[in-house]
What we know:
Elements: E1 6-9, H1 26-39, E2 43-45, E3 48-49, E4 56-57, H2 60-71, E5 77-79, H3 96-99, H4 101-108, E6 114-116, E7 122-124, H5 127-131, E8 137-139, H6 143-156, E9 159-164, H7 167-178, E10 187-192, H8 204-217, E11 223-227, H9 236-241, E12 245-248, H10 261-274, H11 282-289
Parallel strand pairs: 1-2, 1-12, 2-5, 6-9, 9-10, 10-11, 11-12
Antiparallel strand pairs: 3-4, 7-8
Amino acid sequence: MNSTILEVALNGPWSRDLQPLMPTTVDELIAEGIACARAGASVVHCHVYDPETGRQYENFNAYRAVIEGIRAVADVIVYPTLPLSGSPDAPRPMSPATRFEVMVALAEAGLIEWAVIDPGSTQFTRYDQIAAQTPGFLYRNPEEGLTYGLDKAVEFSIHPSYAIYEPGFLRLGAAQANERPGLPTPIYRFMFSEGFTFGFPPTAYALAAYHHLLSDVAPDAPWMIAGLHVDILPLIPNAIERAGHVRVGLEDAPFGSSQSNAKWVEMATTAIETCGGTLATAADIRANLAP
């Protein structure tokens, strides 16, 4: 793919306690998804929130309203999350069928093209939590959930969006993908952070390490830079030089960001174009990721 995919992650699981500007209602998600599409994003990722509790939840009707509302105006790829297993919003272990229930329902309805399928587990702890002696949590992705999700991706022809929090995620995700010849191409999303302790900080050496490993285990696979509690913009020139893609937005941005989702997309667009890159459309992505 010669053009650059620009994805925006509109909100994440944080609530407005940590990210005050992020959208939470269906109407807000639709409006911001459309604004980001107009600013250059071709992929939109979102979490839906319970209007009664103000907390993240998984709800088919809410996701359907967001997806249909954005795509009625803009031709972009819109995809949901999964329950953040191990977090305060999803503290108990779930069977794969339960965890993927809403994703499967959306796939059955023909509403999604990509899906979150994370190939590994890691500790989510922020540096400020350590200083305050407040524990983080183990983000749980047992392998039986990974294989269940990938089998559903084969069944419904959905591209896995792999969040790569640690190098082992990349190796496991690639190995499992290689065992499924009918699996639509996974997108490998390298997750950097400045505020969390997982994985790598957003540095050139870290990107080089991930890119080298990907070249060994999944040659020519599409990948992008992203992260949590991080400003990924300074890494964009390195990514474009290596033919990578980019994700920004208020799920990924440093907590307490003063920039809106549309502003993050605008800044990323400028950075990509300054490096000589061109933005991919959703039609470009579909064509280039087709078997």
